[in-house]
């Protein structure tokens, strides 16, 4: 009996104290030929530990509830502990009653510059800017958590997106690329401001409809699920009438374009002629993909 109680307590402790992210971190240094490669391997290990072992929220998360995600960092130049890189951030979440994982976020940030000394400690303090390396990784960790929460409840990720906004605000004074509105129109500043803006609210509403009312219903009723995914795309398309070719619309289709084609290229038929027209209107860059949707 005593051993059984200990086993149960250990299990409950494991379930209640898992961190939020299950993140694969990779650092590619193929373009760097004149440096000791060990520093890149150490960076990869350090970031893997940092992302997966930091407690990003106050939530108690079961191990099977951790968010699957990845961060792929490509080093373009490296000199005297200064890195110029890009980072591809992706996340997904499992569809209810299914083994299928649906992409939620897929973004390539081309302005990721930082200093890193091998074996330096990486510690996250939400109330200070300590380094661009920590701030960018923490920013995207909160974006991932916030967008994932949005797929389960309307505006469910607001507090985590606000945490990302706080990171961005603290980082602005650093003068590092990607944090201010004067850098580019598609950077971290605009990403978090757009996500929290009422103007672009249809994006977050559409993500909830797409997942919770759409994909999650398919195990019980594929046709109803597909119809609700169609409605979700129509919801997101409302942004186009206010801000054509917006950054946040591209964020949606960068994650969802291939999946949309797959959903509407088989299974129970739904009326999709208007959907294809909408897709071509709001995301013309994916026109070749939309041509693969048959109706």
TrEMBL record:
It comes from the Bacteria. Pfam families: DUF4835 (PF16119). Residues 1-18 form the signal peptide. Keywords: Signal. InterPro entries: DUF4835 (IPR032274). This is DUF4835 domain-containing protein. It comes from Flavobacterium suncheonense GH29-5 = DSM 17707.
């Amino acid at each position: 009996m005593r051993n059984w109680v200990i086993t149960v307590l250990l299990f409950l402790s494991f379930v209640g104290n898992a961190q939020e992210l299950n993140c694969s971190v990779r650092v590619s240094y193929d373009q760097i030929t004149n440096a000791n490669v060990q520093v890149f391997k150490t960076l990869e290990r350090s970031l893997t530990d940092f992302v997966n072992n930091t407690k990003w929220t106050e939530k108690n998360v079961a191990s099977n509830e951790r968010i699957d995600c990845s961060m792929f960092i490509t080093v373009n130049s490296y000199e005297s502990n200064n890195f110029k890189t890009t980072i591809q951030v992706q996340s997904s979440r499992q569809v209810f009653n299914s083994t299928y994982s649906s992409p939620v976020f897929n973004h390539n940030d081309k302005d990721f510059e930082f200093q890193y000394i091998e074996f330096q400690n990486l510690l996250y303090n939400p109330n200070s800017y300590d380094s661009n390396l920590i701030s960018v990784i923490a920013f995207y960790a909160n974006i991932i958590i916030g967008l994932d929460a949005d797929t389960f409840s309307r505006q469910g990720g607001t507090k985590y997106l606000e945490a990302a906004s706080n990171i961005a605000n603290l980082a602005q004074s650093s003068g590092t690329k990607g944090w201010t509105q004067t850098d580019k129109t598609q950077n971290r500043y605009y990403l978090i401001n757009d996500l929290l803006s009422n103007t672009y609210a249809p994006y977050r509403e559409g993500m909830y409809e797409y997942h919770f009312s759409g994909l999650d219903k398919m195990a019980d009723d594929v046709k109803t699920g597909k119809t609700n995914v169609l409605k979700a795309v129509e919801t997101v398309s409302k942004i186009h009438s206010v801000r054509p070719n917006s950054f946040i619309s591209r964020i949606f289709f960068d994650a969802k374009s291939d999946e949309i084609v797959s959903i509407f290229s088989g299974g129970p038929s739904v009326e999709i002629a208007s959907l294809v027209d909408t897709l071509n209107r709001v995301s013309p860059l994916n026109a070749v993909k939309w041509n693969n949707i048959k109706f």
